[in-house]
Amino acid sequence: MPPRLRRPLAGVRSPSSADLRAGLVKGLVSVPDGLATGLLAGLNPVAGLYGYLFGALAGAVSTSSVIMSVQGTSAMAVIVADTPGLRGPDGPRALATLVVLTGLFMLAAGLARLGSLVRYVPNAVLTGFVNAVALNIMLAQLAGVTGYDGRGNNRVIRAVDTLVNVGSFQWAIVAVAALTIALILLLERTALGPLGMVVAVVAVSGAAALLPGLGVPDLASVAEVPQSLPPPVLPLLSTVPDLLIPAASLAFVRLVQGAAIAQSQPNPDGRYPDASGDFRGQGIANIVAGILRGMPVGGSMSGTAIVVAAGGRGRAANLVAAGVMILVVLLAGPIAGYIALPTLAALLMLIGYRTFKLDQALMVWRTGKTQATIMTITFVLTLLVPMQYAVLSGVGISVILFVARQSNRVTVVRWVLEPHGMPHEVEPPRELAGGDVVVLTPYGSLFFASAGVFESQLPEVVPGSAGAVVVLRLRGKEELGSTFIRTIVRYHERLAAAGSWLVLSGVGERVRRQLASTGALDVLGADNVYAATPRIGESLQAALLRAEVLQGRATAD
Questions:
Q1: 416 in the same domain as 346
Q2: Which of 15, 71, 94, 197 is buried deepest, with most CB atoms within 10 A?
């Protein structure tokens, strides 16, 4: 086994009493939670339970984080629900293909050490996405808590149809759902804590089962919970092309949110986990879960919080949780069929409500128009189009807006050098005066989109500009694009046509190589390009001496 994949195994120790307690709580909570997440994904609910089970098992021994819970999540479930081809006779194999592809994307990202790239994902995109997912979760459960199937092409339209047909609600189902939410909220405030969710679902389902005349549907009416572990299933290769985009979206969402867990929850030794190591671990967990008929999985903030709150300190907690889920399946699988479906729908409604990040949305909104626009577009797209496309669209829009914003942040100032004093900055002249020496310093990113803004701030070359020298400081600019180099060459040519010169100072080695390889160095003249040195101002002084020489030659001529 490669060293990168072997290191996490070293953190597995015999479970402490705290890990045993945390694993027991997490395992019991995961049974109804996993079934509900599978239901949210539009799959056989058992696929959600298998995802929780095998995600916890594989993730516990393969992630860099010793405490991260790897399981199915609501965001992933909504993406799966929007993915076609996962139902029907070939559904189990198509699902396995999707989950394994997701795992391969995650594993590849981890092996390529791409953990640091998650910081480039704007918070505005994540905030819009997470809040839209929360609303999608709640809208998707309206049928489950009302007994009325809304009609429409998307969740929003179906929700509106549901709300205008209150008279068609099945009030027994509404009562069961409402009682479940009330009981969860009550029991969570007791010593039961997270187990209050399990007790509420079991208690309300038991009451509904004792009153069959209510007509409340149960889990057995839509799926059979087998009293055995699932046999492996092979992916369906013919579905790979259709599932690449959903798999990439699933991987992207979970990698970003998994990295957030790593940044917020240190390991017991006080060190923060390696994001790339967590990528690899989540990838392995998905490959295992996919082959064993589970839904896609990833690092879960809520699942990890349950383990930490229950006292878990190591990998053993999630291993114990997986063991508890195995025992439930083997010993009480058929009993799970009595779980009332409205209780699971109510549980998801509560999860959706708690997923809302209103405070984060308000913070983004107050940050500025660009961030607010990115968040709003991502939010709307996530509600109206299949989620895998909404995620990618939100990232693409943020990149476009970032480029547009950065291109307008370039500022060119003139440095006025005083004898034996510090330089001070003023606006550059609108027109270049004849015989003048103008030192210009650009601030901002000098990439292709900013070239036009930069050029518009340069002093205009007019017939009376003869004998002038423009010194352009490029210190700290590590790279220039071809568009920007062409802009410099054009300005040099305008200056030369008027009998003036352009001199570059503070040029780094990489920029000089770019100028040489593009032929710009020959056009500008190697004598007019001065390299940056460790001493601040030395290159500029050399450029100013060059300006005196050029003007002296012009006078002599």
A1: no
A2: 71
Q: Are residue 214 and residue 340 in the same domain, yes or no?
A: yes
Distance in angstroms (rounded) separating the CA atoms of residues 78 and 446:
41
Question: Is residue 377, in this structure, part of any structural domain at all?
Answer: no
With 0-12 CB in 10 A as exposed, 13-18 as middle and 19+ as buried, what is 534? Answer: exposed
51: Cβ contacts below 8 Å, ≥ 6 apart: 34, 37, 38, 71, 72, 99, 289, 294, 295, 296, 297
Do 168 and 307 share a structural domain? yes
Give the span between the Cα atoms of 128 and 372, in whole angstroms: 9
Q: What pLDDT digit, counting tens, does each position of 164-182 carry?
A: 999 999 999 999 999 999 9
280 part of a folded domain: yes
Same domain, yes or no, for 329 and 466? Answer: no
Statement to judge: residues 425 and 334 lie in one domain = no
83 shares its domain with 183: yes
User: What HEC string does 300-342 produce?
Assistant: EHHHHHHHHHCCCCCHHHHHHHHHHHHHHHHHHCHHHHHCEHH
CA distance linking residue 329 with residue 557, whole number of Å: 96
Which of 527, 535, 520 has its CA nearest to residue 503? 527
Is residue 31 one of the residues assigned to a domain? yes
537 lies in which domain range?
411-556
Amino acid at 448: F
Convert the pLDDT of each residue in 194-240 to its tens digit: 888 889 999 999 999 988 888 899 888 887 778 889 999 999 999 99
pTM higher than 0.85: no
Residue at which a domain ends, from 320, 337, 356: 356
User: pLDDT tier at 404 (50, 70, 90 boundaries)?
Assistant: low
> DSSP alpha helices (H): ranges in 338-481?
341-355, 358-367, 369-384, 387-407, 451-456
